[in-house]
């Protein structure tokens, strides 16, 4: 699980081009959107593609995203439970 | 009909053309057939949150605009007009590559959003909250001139008082490899690339962003008046001189009235003869200037040419690095620019003090 969280942080920094953010700046329970990392709706689309492309998870209901993408912790937990690759 | 004045300029190029006076830090790179832009500190102009999705062309456009606006001492304009030949080609390449690599699946929006040609003008408008006319011209090597003509007409016809107009193009890895394959760019490892004395096909490629604030009034920051502009898509080599004479005649001028001519020599032996004929005949007794050895050739390189002409009129000096003959004039009040690419997209621009 810890390795997955680290992997997710690295992916988020790279894919979302968060130039000034380091791994240490992202805590496992920090909100990814809003006051936390400050991600927006376009980033949400990028995260959906990461789930699909890298972990074989297709999000059918967009409302699910709100819970799944709450933090690195919630993303890692959802991926661990649902990944197909 | 109102006059059009260039009241501010901002130029990013392969030279350090920002935070300088006029090419005092310029260096002629004879070793590379592709020149890359000298980057400013983007964070001084764009917040990291805003810039993280921006392609280089967008960031360069925003920074060049900011310099032009600062010089003209304006915080907003009535219109923003952008010229670009290839748009944000880096993100276009990224997006198309992702389609191929991922077998048309997993397509993300970011590169696509930034890949459209009008993103540069749109982001500049967002940065300054300009809700006025916003238009992007994509017309090959007359993209910038098309925008300039639009701006000039709007000011003349009293539709706008101040317009930000510029040219932006960026290098992309894949497009550069295609241009090399097509023979547009000079062969690798054939340095030194001399530009004026080349005997081979192809040009030195480059990238840049150059913006101008055009206004209907002369003020302290004024560089020059944009007197007239003509665009011709197709012209034969032997028609250029007559075309220029007619263009000057329309403005009650003769060749002897031109204090300097800025020619778009790019080192391509096949098409530099368009300029060479003028340099050796009609304008043999006129100070001659060239500039693409400093910025490289790209669809909107002529914006660098206009920046050069504007600087000459304002500073009344011509740096040695851009002189292609030794003729001098006591004053540089009227300057003609002529540009073409691959024998097409000809433009004549006349500026004066």
TrEMBL record, chain A:
Intracellular or extracellular location(s): Membrane
Domain Carrier, residue spans: 1-83
Key words, A-Z: Membrane
Domain of life: Bacteria
GO BP of this protein: cell adhesion
GO cellular component: plasma membrane
NCBIfam families associated with the record: PRK09184.1 (NF006617)
Organism: Flavobacterium frigoritolerans
Coiled coil ranges: none
Matches recorded under InterPro entries: ACP-like_sf (IPR036736), Cadherin_CS (IPR020894), PP-bd_ACP (IPR009081)
Record flagged with keyword Membrane: yes
Main location: membrane
Name under which the protein is recorded: Phosphopantetheine-binding protein
From TrEMBL, chain B:
Name of protein: Beta-ketoacyl synthase chain length factor
Keyword Transferase: yes
Organism: Flavobacterium frigoritolerans
Entry GO MF terms: 3-oxoacyl-[acyl-carrier-protein] synthase activity
GO biological process, one term: fatty acid biosynthetic process
GO cellular component terms, semicolon-separated: cytosol
Keyword Transferase: yes
Domain Beta-ketoacyl synthase-like N-terminal: 27-171
Keywords attached to this entry: Transferase
Gene3D superfamilies referenced in this protein's UniProt entry, alphabetically: 3.40.47.10
Membrane-spanning intervals of the chain: none
Pfam families per the UniProt record, alphabetical: Ketoacyl-synt_2
């Amino acid at each position: 699980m810890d390795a997955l969280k680290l992997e997710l942080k690295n992916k988020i920094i790279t894919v979302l081009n968060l130039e000034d953010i380091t791994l240490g700046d992202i805590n496992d329970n920090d909100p990814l959107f809003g006051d936390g990392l400050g991600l927006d709706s376009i980033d949400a689309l990028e995260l959906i593609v990461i789930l699909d492309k890298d972990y074989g998870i297709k999000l059918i209901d967009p409302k699910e995203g709100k819970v799944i993408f709450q933090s690195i912790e919630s993303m890692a937990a959802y991926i661990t439970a649902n990944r197909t690759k | 009909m109102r006059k059009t004045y260039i009241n501010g300029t901002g130029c990013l190029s392969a030279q350090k053309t920002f935070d300088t006076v006029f090419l005092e830090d310029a260096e002629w790179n004879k070793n590379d057939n592709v020149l890359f832009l000298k980057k400013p500190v983007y964070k001084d102009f764009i917040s990291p949150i805003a810039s993280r999705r921006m392609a280089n062309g967008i960031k360069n456009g925003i920074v060049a605009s900011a310099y032009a606006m600062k010089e003209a001492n304006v915080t907003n304009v009535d219109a923003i007009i952008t010229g670009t030949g290839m748009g944000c080609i880096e993100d276009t390449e990224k997006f198309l590559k992702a389609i191929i690599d991922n077998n048309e699946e997993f397509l993300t929006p970011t590169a696509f959003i930034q890949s459209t040609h009008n993103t540069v003008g749109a982001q500049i408008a967002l940065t300054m909250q300009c809700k006025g006319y916003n238009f992007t011209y994509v017309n090959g090597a007359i993209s910038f001139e098309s925008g300039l003509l639009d701006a000039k007409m709007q000011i003349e016809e009293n539709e706008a008082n101040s317009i930000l107009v510029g040219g932006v193009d960026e290098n992309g890895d894949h497009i550069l490899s295609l241009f090399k394959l097509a023979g547009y760019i000079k062969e690798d490892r054939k340095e030194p690339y001399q530009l004026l004395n080349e005997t081979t096909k192809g040009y030195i490629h480059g990238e840049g962003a150059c913006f101008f604030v055009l206004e209907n009034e002369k003020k302290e920051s004024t560089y020059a008046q944009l007197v007239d502009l003509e665009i011709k898509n197709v012209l034969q080599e032997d028609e250029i001189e007559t075309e220029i004479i007619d263009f000057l005649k329309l403005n009650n001028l003769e060749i002897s009235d031109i204090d300097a001519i800025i020619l778009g020599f790019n080192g391509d032996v096949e098409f530099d003869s368009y300029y060479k004929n003028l340099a050796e005949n009609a304008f043999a007794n006129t100070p001659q200037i060239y500039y693409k050895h400093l910025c490289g050739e790209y669809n909107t390189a002529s914006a660098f040419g206009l920046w050069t002409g504007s600087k000459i009129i304002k500073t009344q000096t011509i740096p040695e690095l851009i002189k292609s003959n030794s003729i001098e004039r006591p004053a540089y009040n009227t300057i003609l620019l002529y540009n073409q690419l691959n024998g097409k997209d000809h433009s004549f621009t006349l500026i004066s003090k």
